[in-house]
Records
---
Amino acid sequence: MPLTPQLAEKIRRMPKAELHLHIEGTLEPELIFALAERNGVALPYPSVEALRRAYAFHDLQSFLDIYYAGASVLLTEEDFYDMTRAYIAHAVADHVRHAEIFFDPQTHTARGVPLEIVMAGMERALAEAEIKLGFSSRLILCFLRHLPEEDALATLDAALPYFRSLPHRLIGVGLDSSELGHPPAKFARVFERCRALGLRIVAHAGEEGPPEYIHEALDILRVERIDHGVRAIEDEALLDRLARERIALTVCPLSNTRLKVFDDMADHTLGALLDRGLAVTINSDDPAYFGGYVNANYLAAFESLDLTAQDAYTLARNSFEASFIDDRAKRALIGELDRFWQAS
Ligand code: ADE
Ligand code: ZN
């Protein structure tokens, strides 16, 4: 069934949560150039257009190389504040009520930018948005999996003061960057420490990596959600387990097609995963690099796949159910979603 203008409008306007969003992946080329100029950083591209033209990726690594280069313009608290504010404006426009936002501290501390600057800039923007816009948010610190586990352990140590002083914001840890060759088991010790600290746990798994990495994320890291997870479709027993245990997948359709996980959106397995009873959610991953924010991801999936209004409701409901907010806040947001669908 083709996506009708009425359903497209409902999807745009329905309240939703975003659970898979890298804040460094929201740096639009215009902001990269503005921050480079403000900070006197030389960029290897002559113009915004030339930089945008470089966003032609053939796999995850070809994207990550450009993504880390883009993040090199972030130096001051103001830079992290401006980046976070710009994302919030996009999210609010897309009717995102709650976001759980990833950040990569090692990308910044390795360049000599103190964690204090990173945290202060993001927290100022998020606290302001909470008060002025009612925009709810949490932060999830991601370890870079291409680096040794010792680096992740040191990063956790450095972040302990923020887990203590910002418990309402900084709530958990994740695992991202180059997946192939860096299985979850490589990070068993650091995640064990995180669990002992009572932190929420997620990890990227089954984006490019095999279903075995999803098993490891569940069994060794003991994740509560799987980021991407689309390769679960290759493993029947895993699908049964994900459905039975209600382990949510934070799926990112435009990311998956831009990084050639699927050649075409029509090949995306999101619909099949939903039909199999999995708690699928739709998210934008790195919207500045992949062609759009969360609503663009919903609409791209609905344009190419055989999805219904009931699926739209289920996807948004899953996004609230799978979030790490408390039950009362969850019920309030799901109530808002229900009223939205009943009103039309
Ligand atoms: N870092 C930013 N986006 C990512 C993705 N899609 N996979 C792994 N690491 C990432
Ligand atoms: Zn991601």
---
Amino acid sequence: MKKRVFSGVQPSGDLHIGNYLGAIVNWVRSQEEHDNVFCIVDLHAITVPQDPKILKHRTLENAKMYLAAGIDPKKSTLFVQSDRPEHSELAWILNCFTYFGEMKRMTQFKDKTGIQLGRNFTLPDTSDRLISNYDNKQLIAIIREIEAEWKNSDTWRIQNKRKEESISVGLFDYPVLMAADILLYDTDEVPVGDDQKQHVEITRDIAQRINNKFGKVFTVPEPVIKKEGARIMSLTDPTKKMAKSDQNENSYVLLRDDADTIYKKFAKAQTDSENVIKFNKEKKPGISNLLNIMSVATETKIPELEKKYANSNYGQFKADVAECVIEMLKPIQAKLAKYDKDEDYVRKVLKDGAEAVAPRAQETLKRVKKAVGLGL
Ligand code: TYM
């Protein structure tokens, strides 16, 4: 029997090459071998404020992207999450078997909200001075100390309090809805980028917990994270992942960007001053990111690329990376133009998809309700 695959993308921003190379391209490449369900997770998108019109636009846009990238509705089912009410219903049940402490530890929540010492908070002034004076190990210890001190301060308490006032409970609960998405379809494999690993792991924990309590209710899924492409980094700050939510447009390449824009973005990509094209994530994050992008885009191994560019300068290399990405996106953009003219077709694919997955979703939900003792 074919393995069951489930994955999803949030319509919370325009898709970028990180989404494509980290996730979608792998779905397309293994489409034949699996029984695939792909979802546009609009319920996840509303965990942060959304403009209703833009959200609808992006939901359709995401569907066009999936199709243009090569998801074939004859081989894979594609639908919008909110079209299947079973996702929310299962999420509620799973909520009651998920612990507050577990959710509090989810890094994505911490990153997005800045609650705890996340990205949105800067360390107190002293950190700048410290960085130059100590080695890594000492620095970690010192940062821990500062963190503890900082968390004890009134400023931290006030800032955190303010944050909490404007963060939805949905954002906190986001991984449980994701667990519901996955478990609803008896999923064996979840192909995602590196950043979603923790969410698939919590899904496994919740599934196992319920299975231990009530007998085998759920299939326990495995995350599938390809080494290459799993973490495409920002072009302007290669120590951060490429993200739709980034305020700096030069940090990402969108699937709809034209050739000129792509050349410009890569030309501005942050590198180092060494002028040596070698993969070294720690010492040369910028060049390593570009090598990684080129490697996945062209399906060429990184050592081969290092050899090819042994005598090139960064300018030439960046232009070539841009060229590869432009070539990779050309057929996708041509198909996008086709779907732009035939949105009714795209809507129909989504509607048919939601109907096609209904029996599976309903069957799972019935099984869970029975196991837990809901209804008569
Ligand atoms: P989202 O919408 O943030 O991202 C969609 C997919 O793209 C991957 N990705 C990346 N991969 C490599 N490099 C990057 N810079 C990069 N940025 C994003 C993500 O890992 C993801 O695979 N919570 C999910 C959506 C979701 C889901 C699910 C996924 C909801 N339910 C069930 C799988 C199964 C999310 O926010 O993805």
---
Amino acid sequence: MNTATPKEILLIKNGELALKGLNRGTFEAALTRNLRYRLRRIGDFTLRCAQSTIYIEPNDPDTDLLAAAEAVEKVFGISAFSRARVTEKDMDAIAKAAIEYLKDELTAASTFKVESKRADKTFPFTSPEISREIGARLLDAYPHLTVDVHQPDTVAYVEIRDFGAYIHAPQRPGAGGMPVGTGGNAAILISGGIDSPVAAYMMAKRGVQLYGIHFASPPYTSERAEQKVIDLMNRVSDYAGHMKLAVVPFTHIQEEIQRHCAEEYFTLIMRRMMMRIACRVASKAGCKALITGESVGQVASQTIPALACTDAVADMPVFRPVIGMDKEEIVRIARKIDTFDISIQPFEDCCTVFTPRHPCTRPKIADVEAEEAALEVETLIEEAIAGIRELSI
Ligand code: ATP
Ligand code: MG
């Protein structure tokens, strides 16, 4: 190791320790792949995995490690992470590095402790001996400090590992969840609203690789409305990684519904058409489930009987991760993932354009089917699918 240039790296602690069904190797391979993808624009890094820790080392010392940390913060499957100084496995070098590297934290604190971990058992001092020695040296360098082993203001961590000694401050919490790609594939029905991006984020957090499906109704909906969906997907992809987005032309279907069906059923029939198309598109894209941003009682099409009507035409499971959440709770997540400000931009959505004045909130499936009989369902579906544009997010 070149000790002339002090090296800083990112130390990542894997999440979900009690891995059931999924073995650690699969988990770590997916996590490493996702980290590489997320860091690709920031610089050239070497990633190493050992002892439930991933080491991210910049190959160029001028790499923006703060930007790397910000990207890593949004990668699912990480329980905690920190920036760390790498030094030789030598007590003097460790003490010198700790004094320099933890200057800000130690200056701001009144009390501290040192916590040491010796994974490399060939290092000639035990963990308590390392903590005692480094603690004494830090006290010399920062005389305002006192040691408090129970409730210290800050902790200086020293880890003696195979590749070197690492010094770092307390770790920051990671995004949690499972690495995207370990939870199968599902299609998110994404509108321009607040709820569906949050639903997407929540399923990506469980390791699900997403595929976006958006129904557009030009000229009733504008190009700006479509751009809004692309912008939302881009924000979601900070967490969910690379995705495809299928834009389905929906105008003709909506016009046909309006022409042939009773107004109180417009929304329901429209949602059933969305489901039918989404199932086919999802299946072709290798997805085994659909995801929507529906929440019980939020609007007329989200009562339990209405949801049963839409589910009746789906031939794969439909996940609704925000089903039991209040709008406020959903908004809190939307703000956290930075989709809220985009979602509230005022562009028409295909649903708002054709909203009936008095929607049926307690539909019976038989009545809905009778209304639908006036439509050439299969032809309309095929026509919409033929007009799909697939974009890369
Ligand atoms: P959101 O805030 O996600 O738009 P919403 O509360 O406005 O939801 P609806 O408009 O009834 O509710 O839509 C319910 C769900 O149906 C959405 O969360 C989304 O998953 C799906 N959906 C609605 N409109 C579209 C669309 N144009 N394209 C794709 N999916 C849609
Ligand atoms: Mg909506």
